[in-house]
Amino acid sequence: MYRDKLLGKGSNKVLKYTSSLTSSDRAMVREVITALIAHTKSLVKHNLVPKEVGDKIIQELKELCRNPEPLFTMEAEDVHEAVEIYLRNKLGSDAGWVALGKSRNDHVAAALRLKARRELIKLLSELIELREVLLEKASKYERTLMPSFTHLQPAQVTTFAHYLLSFDEELSQYIRILKYIISEVVSESPLGAGASITTNVPLSRYELAEELGFSKLVINSLRATGSRDFIMIVSSILTCISVTLTRLAEDFIVFTTPQFNYVSVAPEFLATSSLMPHKKNLVVMEIARAWGAESIGHLVAILAIIKGLPTGYNLDLQEVNKHFIQLLEKTTETVAIVRDMLKSVKPNEESMRADIAKYPLLVTDYAELLALKLGKPYREVHELVAEVVGRSEKLSEVYEKLGELLGKSLSPEEVINKPHEGSPNPSYVRRYISKALEEVKELKEHVGKLLADDVVCST
């Protein structure tokens, strides 16, 4: 449609190669139509098109927003061209008014920002629910003892609650960053920027921004149309979230092995072998672990495509969209599946206590307390304790000798009561959970307001 008068009919092979219609455009078609509705409303408001024509265009666009499938039966470069072809088929030459003062360049940027905002709000909601599960489990198991690890070697005694809260705190940081990104990075309107240097058509860029719920403008039109800085920022944090979830996934893959047997999960998250009928594999977390690697791949693809592009719009940016949409949608899906898995988790306290009794997890506590009691340099005491461990044949002998030096025996229940916030001490754990639950309550109210302000297909 766009090329015929200048370049003639194109090759179907080339069209298929360059078109985005059947890939990323489907994922953000409603956002594209929503931006076009806002544009047409502005044309009508400022008497730039006949009102009766503008109203007919808006009505057709609203119908199309409810069912955009006809667009994907067309031969078109992208969804923007498909919408214009659709309108022309419905309204004839009157459809041509919609092109006044707009470009695919500013409209695709607007649609991408609308899509990002919607998906990030969904992600925010899923992360909040994941936090609720972590906090509920932590509250239930605040005194459930388990080994902690460094280098995957048994280290010291902690609690299942303390372990879970390490992830909660990390997710809380991502949520704070996402809130900022939604309000300050994504919520900038590129509409009215045209193809490159805005337009002679006297639209109000501020009105267009307000109509679509954007809080401010991308001021410079070259940045508005040719930059994808917001995609780079959003994709980076999505990848960080995905990578964090791979660590949790790896832990639970290890914890559910018979060798550890620290936790059990619902059968729906497990699979068995086609050959070995005894296998119970935590395959859902294996896919979550793989997604972390894929997310890195998508981020690298995005950065590599954008790297070194000349200023202004280039069709390379179209190829960014498929990676970006995958990151948006699959990260949210992964958060949801991890949350559901965690809901079903039950710690096996007997197995964890058996390992606490099996490995020398209390020797560090003995060493610290001995240094304090004897008033000796810690390195000297460290060497003393290491020598006791090295010379003793049984763990009971180690604890007996160290208990004699200290003047008392230590228990696993006692050593978790560290005098520091952030330790597995149940009193500090409870305080953290209480504060976190208040934060989660406020976050849910915030997300509710964001959802209520959604404009896609309602403009």
Keywords:
459 residues, mainly alpha, Fumarase C, Chain B, domain 1, Fumarase C, Chain A, domain 2, 3 domains, two-stranded antiparallel ribbon, two-stranded parallel ribbon, 19 helices, 6 strands, 65% helix
Can you walk through the features of this model?
The structure is a single chain. With 459 residues, the protein is mainly alpha-helical. It contains 19 helices and 6 strands. Helix 5 packs across helix 6 and helix 8 packs antiparallel against helix 11. The two termini are 27 Å apart. The strands form 3 sheets. The chain has a two-stranded antiparallel ribbon. The protein folds into 3 domains: 97 residues, Fumarase C, Chain B, domain 1 (Orthogonal Bundle); 251 residues, Fumarase/aspartase (Central domain) (Fumarase C, Chain A, domain 2, Up-down Bundle); 47 residues, no CATH class. The longest helix has 37 residues. The radius of gyration is 29 Å and the shape is elongated.
Helix/strand layout:
Elements: H1 4-7, H2 12-18, H3 24-27, H4 29-45, H5 51-66, H6 79-91, H7 104-140, E1 145-150, E2 153-159, H8 160-186, E3 188-189, H9 205-211, E4 216-217, H10 221-226, H11 229-255, E5 263-264, H12 283-306, H13 316-344, E6 346-347, H14 349-358, H15 363-374, H16 378-391, H17 395-406, H18 412-415, H19 426-452
Parallel strand pairs: 3-4
Antiparallel strand pairs: 1-2, 5-6
Helix pairs in contact: 4-5, 4-7, 5-6, 7-8, 7-13, 7-19, 8-11, 11-12, 11-13, 12-13, 15-16, 15-17
Main sheet specs: 2 strands, antiparallel
Beta-strand content estimate: under 5%
Shape: elongated
Can you give the helix content as a percent range?
55-70%
Question: Strand order across the biggest sheet?
Answer: 1-2
Number of domains: 3
Contiguous runs where pLDDT drops below 50 for at least 5 residues = none
Query: What is the CATH class designation of the largest domain?
Result: Mainly Alpha
* Structural class by sheet pairing and helices: mainly alpha
Tally of separate helices: 19
| Termini Cα gap | 27 Å
Q: H/E order of the elements?
A: HHHHHHHEEHEHEHHEHHEHHHHHH
According to CATH, what is the topology of the largest domain?
Answer: Fumarase C, Chain A, domain 2
Q: What is the number of E strands?
A: 6
CATH architecture of the largest domain: Up-down Bundle
CATH superfamily of the largest domain: Fumarase/aspartase (Central domain)
**Cα Rg:** 29 Å
